[in-house]
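Hi there, hope your week has been kind to you so far. Would you mind checking whether the C-alpha cells look sensible for this chain? I owe you a coffee for this, so here goes:
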Amino acid sequence: LQVRLQVQNVDRPLYRGTFHCFQSIARQESMFGLYKGIGSPMMGLTFINAIVFGVQGNAMRLLGRDTPMNQFLAGSAAGAIQCVICCPMELAKTRMQLQGTGEKKSKRRLYKNSLDCLVRIYNKEGLRGINRGMLTTFVRETPAFGFYFLTYDCLTRYLGCEPEDPYMIPKLLFAGGMSGIASWLSTYPADVIKSRLQADGVGGVNQYSGILDCVRQSWKKEGWRVFTRGLTSTLLRAFPVNAATFATVTLFLIYMRGEDEGLKDCEPVPAPPPAPASALQQQPSSL
C-alpha cells in the first residue's frame, strides 16, 4: 500500500486513500496482490536486523556511557551501515510491488521474483542500477535509526522496564511500537522521494534526473502533501512490527544474560544484584 500510494500519478490517481488502495488491490489482484515483493524483505530483514542491533550494541560499548546522545549516535551508525543491504532490497520490493498493477494475472511479467529482479537490473544498469536511491536511503535511515533507539531508550527508562516487573512485556511492546512510529515520522519525506526514484524507469520512461529534480517536480505538482503520501499505512504497519522486534530482541538479550529464570513463564523474577559501575557504563539499560 505504501509504495502504490507514494508513486501513483497525481493526474490519474488509482487510489483515494489507504483503505481504498487495500480494497482495490484485494479486488483486482486478489489477496495475493497485497503480498507482492515479500520475497525481498524476507531475504534481507534478517541480515538488516542483525547488522542494526549488532552495530548499535558495539557502538554503545565504544562510546562508553549510556546517554541519550550516545543512543542516538549508535543508532545512526547502525542505520548508515545497513543501507548497503536495505537499498537493493527495497529496490526489488518496489519494482515487484508495481508489477502488474490492477491485474490479477500480469500479462507482461518482467520479473519472476525479487532475485530475478535484481539480476535483471544489474545486467542492464550494473551496480549503479542496483544502488538506485542509495543516497536518499542513507538520508532516511541514518537519523531515523538514531531516533529509533533514542525513543526506545527514553521510553523504557520512563516506563521502568525491569526484569522483575510483571508488566514488562506490554511496556516493551509499547516502547518498541512508539519507537517505530517516531523513526518513520522523523524522515518520512525522504522515503517518498526514495520510492519515486526507485520506481522511476518502470515502463521504460525516466521522469526524474536526480534527487533535487524529483523533489522539485513532486512539490510543484502536488504541494507539501506529497511528502505524506502513504503515511497512514506506514504507521499502521510500524507499530506492531517494531513492537514485536524490540520486545523479542530485549527479551532474548535478558535471557542470554541469565537475568530471567522465570521470564519464559511470563512471571516476575527476583531483582538481579546491582551491577558494577563499569558494566553499567558499557551496556544500555534498555538492551
Notes: Residues 259-271, 277-286 have pLDDT under 50 and may be disordered.
